[in-house]
Design a protein that fits this description.
Layout lengths: L18 H9 L4 E6 L3 E6 L11 H6 L29 H4 L2 H25 L7 E2 L1 H13 L9 H21 L4 E2 L1 H21 L1 H15 L1
Length: 221
């Protein structure tokens, strides 16, 4: 589903009020979800999955987030990355990159898709635990105990849920390397990515939340 704005899903209109709850439930990756309209019956969808890729400004993200979205479970189910200024500007990717480089990028994209489909087939139907090796266990254990130190207090809910996010990152990294277990490099990559997210939240969310809190405190006083 292509939408020009996030406001088509997240907003204060009547039909949007439960959208954040429904997305949160889907992003929880439960065994099943029950859907339907009252009076027409319900249908059960097994192993539901949803992927959301969205872009926004820091101001909108912080101010228009659904009520309780930051303190609750909505935002912590998303990977938040802020984009800085690119080191190199390329107005026309096709024309300004150069024929060889552009062709190389196309070939790399084709290889990526081929690998993605083959990996999906390889792991399709696979059940069981992705066992973390001892060094990976130790690294994650230290992260788990100290993870709240990485995040600002205004996004504690995100810090709390980062424990699950880190494990998912490590598992995806392991799969991308063709392994059915998590080793130290997988966990190191995952935790570095969590650090990037913590920095992004510090840039995009925290200043606006602190400003709003200051305004509310001033009004209350």
């Amino acid at each position: 589903v292509f939408a020009p704005e996030l406001t088509q899903y997240l907003g204060e209109k009547d039909y949007q009020k439960c959208m954040d709850t429904e997305l949160t439930n889907l992003l929880s990756c439960g065994d099943y979800v029950q859907v339907g309209i009252k009076g027409t019956g319900f249908q059960v969808i097994p192993r539901p999955t949803v992927t959301v890729y969205a872009g926004s400004t820091a101001t909108w993200l912080a101010k228009k987030m659904p009520k309780g979205g930051v303190a609750g479970g909505f935002l912590p189910r998303f990977v938040v990355i802020t984009e800085g200024r690119p080191k190199k500007s390329v107005p026309w990717v096709k024309y300004d990159t150069g024929k060889m480089a552009y062709r190389g990028a196309q070939e790399a994209g084709a290889r990526w898709k081929e690998w993605l489909y083959s990996t999906r087939e390889e792991y399709n139907g696979l059940h069981g635990e992705f066992v973390p090796l001892l060094e990976a266990q130790d690294l994650y254990r230290n992260f788990y105990i100290n993870r709240f130190n990485k995040f600002h207090t205004t996004v504690e809910a995100y810090a709390n849920r980062s424990r699950d996010m880190a494990l998912r990152f490590a598992m995806v990294c392991a799969v991308s390397r063709g392994k059915p277990y998590i080793d130290l490099p997988d966990m190191e990559f995952a935790l570095k990515l969590v650090d990037v997210i913590a920095e992004s939240l510090q840039t995009a969310i925290v200043p606006i939340l602190e400003d709003e809190a200051s305004k509310q405190a001033w009004v209350a006083a």
